Amino acid sequence: MTKIAIIGAGLIGGSLALCFKGQPGLRVTGYSYRQESADKYVRLGVVDEATTSLEEAVHGADYIFLCVPVGMLTDYAQRISLMPLKSGCILTDVGSTKAGVAAAVSTIKWGDAVFIGGHPMAGSERAGVEAASAILFENAYYVLTPDENTPPEAVDRLSYLLRLTRAKIVHMNPKEHDEIVGAISHLPHLIAAALVNQVSRYNEGNGGYAMLAAGGFRDITRIASSDPIVWRDILLENRVIVLRLLEEWGGELNRLADILRSEDGEAISGAFRSAGEFRSSLPERRKGVLQSIYECYMDVPDHPGIIGKIATELGNRNISLSNLQIIETRMDVPGVLRLSFRTQGDLDQAVEVLEAFNYVVRVT
Ligand SMILES: NC(=O)c1ccc[n+]([C@@H]2O[C@H](COP(=O)([O-])OP(=O)(O)OC[C@H]3O[C@@H](n4cnc5c(N)ncnc54)[C@H](O)[C@@H]3O)[C@@H](O)[C@H]2O)c1
Ligand SMILES: O=C(O)C(=O)C[C@]1(C(=O)O)C=C[C@@H](O)C=C1
Description:
By secondary structure, the chain is an alpha/beta fold.
């Protein structure tokens, strides 16, 4: 039996555990610092067994996944390095920052064990084992950060195990990782939190802000609900890069303010045009729980029964809607409806049908 120890089976650790549990020849042990959580891991069927003893969790393990907040990773790595480990054991982490941990673990004596940094580029604003999902990583990128001293055989072995996540493994240098992920993940989380807090302050004086907050606000701020401790640690760890990115973000905002001040309509539409072009060129994840969404938006007149009519027309053609949301609707202007589908085929067919009914449809 191959033993996999998951240290902290929250959203990410629990999702990894679900990818491995029940696979032939694999046995998954969860570790939590709290008995209550360890019991929950077993009750929810995320692991085969769970313990609050770190030593017991890592004893005889072939793979150890450190899935705790970034600020605790080095401490856990150090403690584990002092415990008896199985020869050839591979330790890896899932932390959202890579350079700090890589530097810290490079000073640890691992004996026969090997440490390989890792970071699955998938997640959500939810936290805890209840949010874990076996398909979270499907088709996402999974970054590994081996260095020149990492035995290629160990990288191959870890990559082979990770095939069970159905993620796409890529290798990257920790510093480059932190620079890129700082811009595409850490900065956006800060911006989302700042925007929500700004609006929340306005709302204290006038509840209309929360009342009218519709699709646009919700779309850009979903990640503001992310776990406070997880994000405290990520941002503190990558602060040098994030502080520079924030300065550059300030520059972007100043440029936008300038063109607005000078009422330069061409420059404003240019900003949206170039942003839209880059956004549509982003590679899409074709599967997976969080991003298996193929969406279009359509303007709908505020007629009673219009939504039922749209759903019926699609249903009559066997086009399955996975979600339908009214983003905005007022008596005097068309509302916006967001239609979500599980496959590109359903989306394409739906657009064809809706356009045949003369609806204006936009695909994101
Ligand atoms: N949330 C995401 O979208 C995402 C995506 C990729 C990687 N990550 C990384 O994954 C790691 C875990 O994040 P998550 O989103 O699964 O968070 P989570 O809160 O769902 O899970 C964190 C786990 O750490 C444990 N933990 C918390 N405090 C602890 C303490 N004081 N001592 C011991 N264990 C403790 C919790 O019990 C839980 O099992 C982090 O390093 C994070 O950077 C997160
Ligand atoms: O989809 C989300 O909610 C996420 O926050 C996932 C996300 C990201 O920013 O893309 C967050 C942190 C990670 O380390 C990797 C992925």
